[in-house]
Amino acid sequence: MLVLQVFCSLIGWFCLYLLFCYTFAQRGAEWSCRLVTLSHGVIIVLLTGYVKPPDEVFTSNPPLRPAGTENTELQSVSLAVCLGYFFFDMCWCVCFHTEGPLMLAHHAGSIVGILLALLMGVSGCETCGAIFGSEITNPLLQTRWFLRQLGLYDSLLGDAVDLLFIVLFATVRVEWVTSPRPTLIMKLGGVAMYALAWVFMVDIARFCCKKSRAKYKKWQENSKLKEAQK
């Protein structure tokens, strides 16, 4: 049943990609793939948010299943939907050579982690929590890319998207809490994903510094121009 669910998810994401390719043929393959990624981000955040991760992962209201317990049907379906997407996106990235080793390692780690949770039948709760935390910023990341393509990135909307992305990434994706229940292999996988998150955080910090300097320089130039016009 799990194999069928993952396969159906993979085919579903691929069909959605083909639909976007047909609808936005003039935009290119990456435009369609990012639309699929945006769709997955919204859907999986809603699914895993509804599952409600345990208090050890994120703050939420009871009743909750503790970390390391048997997967519920909804958790398994959510993981299968996400796994099918990661298979699709991993294949697309390899075929089109659009991502570097770090992002491919992130995809591979996500695939292994979800596979372990599905095959062992436990730790679905905290795995869904990790997916929620890692995917909640994804729609913003894709929105940022689309704004660039449409020439709307250098605007107040672009600044708002960047700010919200940075805040969510720093407060949700990089958060880490331990629990004694999950198995050692799941804990090790969590540590690996946590380490990758910090690598991404360093890149984001560099981006913030670079953009802040650019904004400050532009502000200085505008100020000098206004003074010269007086």
TrEMBL record:
Keyword Transmembrane among UniProt keywords: yes
Membrane-spanning parts: 6-25, 32-51, 108-132, 152-172, 184-202
Compartments it resides in: Membrane
Cellular component terms (Gene Ontology): membrane
Main location: membrane
Top-level taxon: Eukaryota
Domain TLC: 26-208
Topology versus the membrane: Multi-pass membrane protein
Keywords from the UniProt entry: Membrane, Transmembrane, Transmembrane helix
Signal peptide: none
Protein name in the entry: TLC domain-containing protein
Provenance organism: Dissostichus mawsoni (Antarctic cod)
Lineage: Eukaryota, Metazoa, Chordata, Craniata, Vertebrata
